[in-house]
Each structure stands twice: as structure tokens, then as C-alpha cells.
Amino acid sequence: MRHFGDVLFQGAVLEEQEKRGSREAYAKMTAQPAPAGLAERETSFIASRDSFYLASVSADGWPYVQHRGGPEGFLKVIDSDTLAFGDYRGNKQYVSTGHFAANDRAALFLMDYPNKRRLKILAHATVLDAAENENLADRISTEGEGRIERVFTLRVDAFDWNCPQFITPRYTENEVGDALAPLHQEIESLQRENALLKEKLTALSS
User: What integer is the mean pLDDT of 95-114?
Assistant: First the structure.
């Protein structure tokens, strides 16, 4: 596995860093040993995601970003440098599938909006027919999602955690529900208390 910067900091990027004064700091960062693979921090983060953004590249160089969503953990960590997820019947455009057939380079953004965390992953993608890879398809299937048609495997080349400065916190319906649960419980308790007080007042006035 390589440093994220070793993959992306090339050519004109290096020139811009030199010109704008950030090259020395990033050179020190990439001088450190590269990660051996995805560690506990990364694997637990990936296992708790219910969506991610997947980028591919067209035959003439256009980037394409697709949102992928599912139950928490639908993006599976197969081993320390391999991820996989199931591809189900959709709109039948097959844009990412076609792109990866010609150019296997992929980029993933995994977001934790409430905690302002972002994991960036660079990988090489392979698309497999689920019927020809039943064991792997069964391993990554998620209940209630239907039949997997294709399996996307991603061999991780590099990853990086982003600065949280400009990540706007957003919350899913379940996260909002969890946050409001104590308030709802308090309201229910007050409503019961209010009902009892009304009963006592009615009894006193009768």
C-alpha cells in the first residue's frame, strides 16, 4: 500500500505545492512509512457507513461520481487491502461497470457528517458476475436488498483521513431519532404527570 500523497502529488500538483509553500510539510508526511493496510480505525469506520461516493473515469477522461447506499456495513472489508459490495438491479446504465472495464481506477469518499470525518480511498476496481462468484456474493449480501447481480471488489492502493474544517454536519433520520429520543421520553413523562394532575383536580372539584 502507498501513501495517498505518493499517488496524487505528481507533476503540476507538486509544482503548485512548491509555489504555494506546502511542499515541505507534505514531503515530511510521505517520508513516513506507508500504512501496511486498513487498520481497526478504518475497518470500524467503513463498517458503520450506510453510504459512500464512488468515482470512476470514462474512456475519454471524464470523472463520474456515483452515490452508493445501503444498510450499515454494506461495504464489506474482505481483508486489510480489499473491499467489496454488491451491485443490484438498477437503472441499467452500467456507467461505473463500463468505466471499470476500461480503467480500473476508483476513488471513494466515505462521510461521517455528524462527527465531521471523511475517509478517502484510492483503489483498483474489478467487477465480477455474482452467479460465477456465489461464495463471495453470499458473503457480502445484505438482507432485504434482493439478488446481487455483480460484485464490485476494490483493491485499496492508498487512503487518507481529511481535515474536518469544512464538513457540514448532517444527520440521518435514525440519528435524529436517537438524538430526540430522550426529549420524547421526557414529553411522555410530563404528559402522564399532567394527566394525573388533571384527574386529581377533577376529583377535588367534584
Answer: 95
Cα–Cα distances (Å) from 95 to 57, 152, 202, in that order, read: 10, 13, 69
Beta-carbon contacts of residue 78 (< 8 Å; ≥ 6 apart): 84, 139, 153
Q: Which three-class secondary structure state does DSSP give residue 56?
A: strand
Residue written as cell 470514462?
Answer: 58
Alpha helix stretches (DSSP H) within 40-172: 40-47, 95-102, 134-140
Could you give the 3-state DSSP secondary structure of residue 158?
strand
Average pLDDT score over the chain: 92
pLDDT of the residue at 84: 97
Using alpha carbons, select from 159, 149, 157 the residue that is nearest to residue 127: 149
Per-residue pLDDT of 130-183, as tens digits, reads: 999 999 999 988 776 778 999 999 999 999 998 888 899 888 888 898 888 999
Q: Rounded to whole angstroms, what are the CA distances from 25 to 9, 46, 72, 117?
A: 12, 28, 36, 22
Record the cell numbers describing residue 148, joined without a space: 446481487
> For 65-74, how does the pLDDT look when each residue is reduced to its tens digit (9 = 90+)?
999 999 999 9
AA letter at 146: G
